[in-house]
Write a structure and sequence with these properties.
The protein is an alpha+beta fold. The protein contains 10 helices and 36 strands. It is globular. The protein starts with 10 loop residues before the first helix and ends with a strand. The structure holds alpha-L-arabinofuranose.
Length: about 675
């Protein structure tokens, strides 16, 4: 609905309105009653959904710069190039010790017979390596050298072919085939968006190499082998209430053998068994044959990340079913036990004291304190009776041991239709704690469904809007854009989520990250290249809701009704008992400005000035980019409050957040 405003708002004509309409409600007045809280806003209401899609983990937040560092990709030398002055078939051999080391079977053996020859291997990184001038880089490698003879020269080479940093390693002789580790750091002399790593061998001899690694110094919290700080900072800035991980479809796997198994992602990184990423071959239109999961970023690191950014962890576990869009494999019921045990063990890993089997493992990894895990998802987008049958077994076992633990249950892939109706009814019969609903829909759907939860039952299962994003084109189209129109439609929908906080307890946009040269799915909240990251207009909408979450929903009414599309506007309001503010969120989804009076009631006094944070742009199609990362971003200003009234002018396609102090 796009309606032109009848009256341009100025303080003169709004003043007239004040005089003539006094305290009466009319369609120009939004009444916000701050002393009538209708529901609590859950502390974890607005969160983030992290999945290793679009190079989200490897090549993304996991700051490792070397791709295929332990030669475990299906093509063992994928990402590597061998260069030698004299062809020698055996100079670089891929060795397989599968029987001795199933988690990390492969390594390479370098043999160089003549000192005068040249031999090098080059790693291309994840679409190149982002290198910053003046920053320290930490190189490491596991090796065995039976006799002295080889020197290893490590060099970073820029896109222009210039050496921009390096170090030399003189390996010692390692006895009895025991692996040793060499590490050396150096400072980059220049910046390059897509550098490569050259490793040259001088002298003669043999050496075995594995786990060839390069990390920048400036990881998140400066943790060695850690995460990319700029990307994590964008998450931290959102102050998310929860972080859902590790997906998404990667939880399910293309087939059961490639499902996500958390136990394989903890402990020493060299013992974490690599797996193909199910997004590797998912879309013929966006093939990513080099997409694997090294699990350098594993469940311990996810819990630690949640703790770092003050978010409740929300792991999603495989329920004994592979992706139903792919193989749809299910594990027979009589073989489901190990899957259920994984769930129980994960709770112990997070919450068990250091004397428990899994609590001890956590402590050995450096975290004696518990991670305070309160909830878990069983299954991602699974559906059908086969899901319900398995879910019941999980629920029974988990609740028997942890009665207060909350379980998130899947309602499938879509917010309506037969699959949804079936699951919605079955899950409610089971008194599901939290039902996970997903919506990848056009902006019009989000506007039309802003009142979706107004009539959901209050005293039954709670809702997790677990994955949503407005699609400017259509789902899985590569034309989808993160533009103002989609962001505003999501903001409108989110006013409905907030208004219904009594039933909607959590929400997260999806997916979270995308690498500009390695994505499979769009739209995405945050876009990155090897050196930069920026938030989309949709990111700012999420951030504005999360950082203005408040503690209690209060009524915001026009003509006595909640505001969900009248005059193309969408409104919700909360009070924040911690700061003593009332926060009113208003979305104008039309192409024209709309003027309204916000009339506050229920407090003795309101501050004379409100803070207005406004997200708008000139055109609905506007986007952010690496060149203009803040083109569509919020601007904060002070605006007068006359007594208890604010003259709000809502620009076309805008999201306004008013924050007013109360006494
Ligand atoms: O967010 C991208 C994908 O969309 C998720 O992996 C899946 O759960 C959904 O279908």
């Amino acid at each position: 609905m796009r309606i032109k405003p009848l009256l341009a708002a100025t303080w003169v004509n709004i003043g007239l309105l004040f005089v003539t309409t006094a305290h009466a409600q009319n369609s120009n007045t939004i009444m916000v009653q701050v002393n009538k809280p209708v529901a609590e806003v859950q502390p974890a209401m607005w969160g983030v959904f992290f999945e290793d899609i679009n190079l989200g983990a490897d090549g993304g937040i996991y700051a490792e710069l070397v791709k295929n560092r332990s030669f475990e990709f299906y093509q063992p030398l994928m990402g590597w190039k061998v260069t030698q002055s004299k062809f020698n078939e055996g100079s670089v051999l891929v060795m397989n010790r599968a029987e001795k080391n199933t988690a990390n079977p492969r390594f390479i053996r370098i043999t160089k017979d003549a000192a005068a020859d040249t031999l090098s291997i080059t790693n291309e990184g994840f679409r190149g390596m982002g290198i910053k001038k003046g920053l320290r880089y930490d190189f490491s490698v596991a090796y065995r050298q039976p006799a002295a003879g080889l020197t290893v020269l490590v060099e970073l080479v820029s896109m222009a072919g210039k050496i921009i940093g390096g170090t030399t390693i003189t390996p010692v002789v390692t006895a009895n085939e025991v692996w040793s580790k060499a590490a050396a750091s150096f400072t980059a002399t220049d910046t390059s968006l897509k550098a490569t790593l050259h490793i040259r061998f001088e002298g003669t001899g043999k050496i075995d190499l594995d786990m060839i690694s390069l990390f920048p110094e400036d990881t998140w919290k400066k943790r060695p082998g850690g995460m990319r700080a700029d990307m994590i900072q964008l998450l931290a800035d959102m102050k998310p209430g929860f972080i859902r991980f590790p997906g998404g479809c990667v939880v399910e796997g293309h087939e059961l053998s490639t499902r996500y198994q958390w136990k394989k992602t903890i402990g020493p990184v060299e013992e974490r068994q690599l797996s193909i990423n199910r997004w590797n071959s998912e879309f013929a239109h966006r093939p990513t044959p080099d997409y694997y999961q090294t699990f350098g970023l594993g469940f311990f690191e996810y819990f630690q990340l949640a703790e770092d950014i003050g978010a409740s962890p929300l792991p999603i576990l495989n329920c004994g079913m592979a992706c139903q869009f792919n193989t749809a494999e299910v594990i027979p019921i009589d073989q489901l036990d190990p899957y259920v045990q994984d769930a129980l063990d994960l709770i112990e890993f997070a919450n068990g004291d250091v004397t428990t089997q899994w609590g001890k493992v956590r402590a050995q990894m450096g975290h004696s304190a518990t991670f305070n895990l309160k909830m878990m998802g069983v299954g991602n987008e699974n559906w059908g009776p086969q899901y319900v049958e398995r879910l019941k077994i999980f629920s029974k076992a988990i609740k028997a041991r942890y009665p207060d633990f909350k379980l998130v249950n899947s309602s499938g892939t879509d917010p309506n239709g037969e699959r949804f109706d079936y699951l919605n009814s079955e899950l409610r019969k089971m008194n599901a704690d939290i039902i996970d609903e997903h919506y990848y829909r056009r902006p019009e759907w989000f506007l039309a469904n802003a009142a979706r939860y107004d009539n959901y039952p209050r005293n039954a299962s709670k809702i997790f809007a677990g994955e949503y994003a407005a699609q400017s084109d259509h789902t899985v189209s590569i034309e989808n854009k993160n533009n103002t129109e989609t962001a505003i439609a999501e903001a409108a929908f989110m006013t409905g989520l907030e208004r219904n906080a009594a039933v909607v307890n959590m929400a997260s946009y999806a997916p979270l990250f995308a690498h500009i040269d390695g994505w499979q799915w769009t739209p995405d909240l945050i876009w990155v290249n090897n050196l930069q990251s920026y938030g989309t207009p949709n990111y700012y909408v999420q951030k504005l809701f999360s950082t203005n979450k408040g503690t209690n929903v209060v009524p915001a009414l026009m003509d006595g009704k909640s505001i969900s599309g009248q005059d193309s506007i969408y409104v919700s309001a909360v009070i924040d008992k911690n700061t003593g503010d009332v926060i009113v969120k208003l979305v104008n989804a039309s192409d024209n400005p709309v003027s309204k009076i916000i009339e506050l009631s229920g407090a003795k006094k309101f501050s004379a000035t409100a803070t207005l944070t406004l997200l708008k742009s000139n055109a609905a199609g506007d986007v952010n980019s690496f060149v203009h990362p803040d083109a569509v971003s919020p601007v904060t200003s002070a605006t007068p409050v006359k007594g208890n009234k604010i003259a709000a002018v809502l620009p076309a396609n805008s999201f306004s957040v008013y924050r007013v102090g109360m006494k």
